[in-house]
Amino acid sequence: MQSIDKLFVNREKQTAGFIKMLQGQTPKRIMLIEASGGLGKSWTVEFMRVECQRRGIPNTEIDFADSIVFDFLALLRRARDGFGIAAFNLFTQAINEVTQPTVRIETGAANTNAINNLLGQSNTFSGSNVNVGEVIAGNVIKDNSFVINADNAVVRQALQDRLSGAFFACLASLTSQGPLCFFFDTYDKVTVEAEAWLMGHLLPQIRDGLITNVVVVIAGRSVPKLDNQWDHLIARTGLDLLSEPHVKEYLVQRRGLNDDPNVIKALFQGSTGQPQLLAMLADNILRSQASGGDDDWL
């Protein structure tokens, strides 16, 4: 299969606007791509990621269609891993400090000799140092992979605010070297915690100028509903059905099918110009051609 940039057709408006955002040629920092199913939202996101890679721009993708349940911490960990964990040692260390396990030891006597230890770098247990915080591997602090240990909502929020602060401190250091990009795909399946961080932390930081050199692309059947105070930052766009000339370009120039007008028209009508369906039809034709039609009975 060819790479996504070789297959792409008819999204010049979106991609040209995205490049302007990366280059700082527009005040727009947030692109919202809202379109129904099958119109190629994920293709567009992937093409933009390829453009970032071509330009050496750090980027991270969170696809809410993944099987991962994106709570607050999973979201930030995925973003960190996408940008490169070496730049986020401060954030990882903060994770390890606020997710230390609480161990409760009972001697058997009711409510006596009970020990509650919050294990950490400065704690000792049975005479031995217990380190569940930073573990150095080269120049990267390893993540202990634990979750936030707080039942109290106020405490939990305080810990989340601390983690966000550490994350943005690392992000600011990274953006001082050049632009970077967040991609959020399948936003219609966003989790409550993920949306709360996006709307309560990331986007306001961009709006208020607290972080710069950051571009955010959000794609989905639905996207955040932002009022007119965001208009100077937002590029709102959709995705159109492919026209017959674009269908021909995709099938003949991108996929290598014969330039048969009857076939092109039939596939255009059969796909109704939907990129996803058109790609499936092209795949089926190419598979049939490769097998010589021997597997038509399957």
From TrEMBL:
InterPro entries to which the protein is assigned, alphabetical: P-loop_NTPase
Highest taxon in the source lineage: Bacteria
Protein name (record): Orc1-like AAA ATPase domain-containing protein
